[in-house]
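Hi team,

As requested, here is the filled-out complex form for the magnesium ion run. I kept the field names the same as last time so the parser does not choke. Let me know if anything looks off before we queue the next batch.

— J.
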Amino acid sequence: MALIVQKYGGTSVGTIEKIENVAEKLIKAKQAGHDIVVAVSAMSGETNRLIDLAKQISDKPDPREFDVLVSTGEQVTIALLAMALKKRGYDARSYTGAQVHILTDSAHTKARILDIDESRIREDLEKGRIVVVAGFQGMDEYGNITTLGRGGSDTTAVALAAALKAEECQIYTDVDGVYTTDPRVVPNARRLDCITFEEMLELASLGSKVLQIRSVEFAGKYNVKLRVLSSFQEGPGTLITFEDDEMEKAVISGIAFNRDEAKLTILGVPDQPGVASQILTSIGDANIEVDMIIQNIGDDGTTDFTFTVHRNDFDAALAILEKTAKELGARQVKGDNAIVKISLVGVGMRSHAGIAGTMFKALADEGINIRMISTSEIKISVVVDEKYMELGVRALHDAFKLDQAPAA
Ligand code: ADP
Ligand code: ASP
Ligand code: MG
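And here is what came back:
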């Protein structure tokens, strides 16, 4: 019998009625002859509510206790879902991450899954039970509860699918697949039948929250067949696959955007070896990740240096940079946290020239100034002022005609 792992996100289990709906869907899959393991998120809004409680105690809550707290959201859902299944005469068992030995490292709030002991799940499946597992959480080698970062239930599901060698991992959410961009921002965004792991990974890392980055990495690494589908309507969803000749021949497959960005500039530092390293080492030492970097050389022997960080790190990074500026005798430090990054992603960029030109023209036609640019083999990212985010994404979606299926 084929084993399928399903995952239901927060909105899909947001009310008792929706949890009952999930129970019905699971029963249908069971009746179709599948063994079913299901990972669930906390009811919508619950994780945010818990985080808010912690923040009322402290700006920087203790990470271990933070994980004990925020992991409770998922425990509520597993119990309710198992009850709903049992009420319908189906045998089910709910488990926290620790109970099914989802072993992680000890990096609280962003732990990585190291191993899953699937023996207990297998025993239940053999008895005909539907196994309901709390997403987003695990346990480290010392028995501490850990959580996997926002959106982490996706990764729980994929890790379970990998450990159990499931036929497919189905991510049920509030959209019916992966779109050319967030359909909430571009109403005529188009659902993709399939997308490559490589592209999905870029989209996820550049800000598309439909799948957690690590879930895509994990699925690619362990060859898990991964599909995104709607909890509320029937349909084929989107399959994440390895590249093959049958796929749509789009040059651009999607647009991602990220509001969590902030930009810092240090002006008038000496143009000499070691300066870039001095600036970035002090930022790195504070555990702040730097994303884009640009440097402009002036003709007076000085240079300006600009980089972006996560918006949450803006204040800390600015304080560090002010200090470095004094040490280097820099002219000025500037910061801007009202910026966004918009990125075009597509494996077709490898074989197509001129994409950047079309992108920059589309933005210019809307009067949108580009503040920073970065490119890689399959993506081009620009930083623009936050107020232009929606306009910019829509303009690019139109310019590349992403609402239309590419010609075969
Ligand atoms: P869940 O709670 O089920 O995990 P998420 O909110 O994490 O759901 O992810 C689904 C949301 O991702 C959608 O409602 C949509 O707004 C957003 N999204 C962003 N980019 C895309 C995209 N390219 N395709 C589909 N959805 C996207
Ligand atoms: N409940 C967690 C969150 O809101 C994990 C998840 O939903 O995937 O981020
Ligand atoms: Mg999610």
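Two things worth flagging: The pocket of adenosine-5'-diphosphate (ligand 1) is lined by residues 9-12, 41, 151, 173-175, 178-179, 181-184, 208-210, 254 (CB under 6 Å). The mean pLDDT is 95.

Thanks,
J.
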